[in-house]
Amino acid sequence: MDEADRLNADCDAARLDQAALRQAMQVQGESWHELVKERCPYLFAAVPLFISTFQLRAMYEVISAVEKVVALAGWQAAGAETPPVAKGVFLGYDFHLDQQGAHLIEINTNAGGAFLNQLLIDSQRDADLPGKTAAVENLEASILAMFRNEWRLERGSAPFKTVAIVDQQPEDQYLYPEFLLAKKWIESAGIAVHIADPSALQLREDGLHFGHEKIDMVYNRLTDFSLQKFPVLRQAYLDGRVVLTPHPHAYARYADKRNLVRLSDVDGLRALGVNEDDIFVLYAGIPHTVAVQPDMEEQLWKERKQWFFKPGSGYGGKGAYSGAKVTRRVFGEILHGDYVAQKLVQPGARAVCVDDAGAAALKYDVRCYVYEGQIQLVAARLYQGQTTNFRTPGGGFALVRVVE
Asked: Which domain of life is it from (predicted)?
């Protein structure tokens, strides 16, 4: 057992400074703090998660290999329309970790939680916790620089004045408190920020508008990744009348679950011209994934406990099933739906003590927030159940610390 495993197995080994976290939340305003307590009581985990330098390096190697593959012309040919220059903010690489290293479970192009995790990291800077913070120095400045770079890539030196954070019925979203946090921090850089439902946007000759104000950039938190349900925003994006980040091309390039099939196909990677070192990293770091076909029924049902089933264009665990728990009826729907099957890699476990009730082993996954191939911060989500959630006492976003 290495040091990270030892610490993760002991719920008393290291706990967050809850008083410091409460103070950091109260600084954001009493109404914000009350909103979090009311809507998101299990937003932040009770304990940090510890990972080894070996596991951090393994995650970076997988990310680096993926970034090189998706940059190849042959890969991009399978994507959507001509790509914009903007890279897409908050690319999320989600991993399960074990003694063998890091296993990429999925990639997301609108990964939530970065602003919340920044607050969590800042609140614990004076806490006496083992290891080092898994984030770049000056994280807030790095995040703001990322948004400015997205603007510069698309608009050069033109003034950058307004951002709209866009999601359906944003005030009803579970992570609405993060939208408010993002608004406050981006506004601190002198940029006006609005939080808007896509139905409130209007496309005019000179660009996209929210009320009487022209929107320079949309920070896209929608989960309709193609924007088919939002023709105004989609048209503004296609016409280049707004800078959209992240955008549909980034989703097609990275986050469509069917990409995991290609990334774990050794022969296909060789045909693309991927070098052998990167193929080895991807083979070791991405659980084998296949596109589900009806003629695979007998094999997949027999082996179902070895697989995890995901819709090709799903997100956040929606429509995802552990093969060990899938029913015959649901399996039939999977066979005739647009699903992929990924070899099951069990999540790690973190011991958590809640209200002196004894230790509970919560599952965890680890998310790397990435921009231009570089990890900005690493966070974890602690949970119980089939997929990640924020309904588990003691669970939620967890501070990640790196130990030798």
From this structure: Bacteria
Classify residue 393 by burial, with Cβ atoms within 10 Å: 0-12, 13-18, 19+: middle
**Which residues share a beta bridge with 144?**
none
The residue among 307, 334, 304 whose CA lies nearest residue 319 is 334
Residue type, 341: A
**Residues 399 and 49 sit within 8 Å (Cβ to Cβ):** yes
Provide mean pLDDT across the span 311-330.
Answer: 85
- List, in sequence order, every residue forming a beta bridge with 380; answer none if it has no partner: 366, 398
Strands (E), 237-372: 243-245, 289-291, 307-311, 321-322, 339-343, 348-353, 359-371
Evaluate if residue 13 carries a pLDDT over 90.
no
The number of C-alpha atoms within 13 Å of 288 and in the hemisphere containing its C-beta is 5
Full domain range(s) for residue 97: 3-258+347-403
Note whether residue 157 is domain-resident.
yes
Q: What is the dihedral of CA 313, 319, 324, 330, to 10 degrees?
A: -110
Asked whether 328 and 273 are in contact (CB, 8 A), the reply is: no
Dist CA 95 CA 228 (whole Å): 29
pTM over 0.90: yes
| Cβ burial, residue 221 (10 Å; 0-12/13-18/19+) | buried
333 CB-contact burial (10 Å; exposed 0-12 / middle 13-18 / buried 19+): middle
H/E segment holding residue 280? helix 276-285
Upper half-sphere CA count for residue 404 (Cβ side, 13 Å): 0
pLDDT at residue 80 in the model: 47
**Residue 277 located in a structural domain:** no
Residues in the chain: 404
Q: What is the mean pLDDT of residues 241-248?
A: 97
Closest by CA to 375, choosing from 176, 117, 178, is 117
Cβ burial 23-51 (10 Å sphere, 16+ → b, else e): ebbeebeeebbebbeeebebbbbbbbbbb
Residue 265 lies in a domain: no
Residue 16 domain flag:
yes
Domain count, the chain: 1
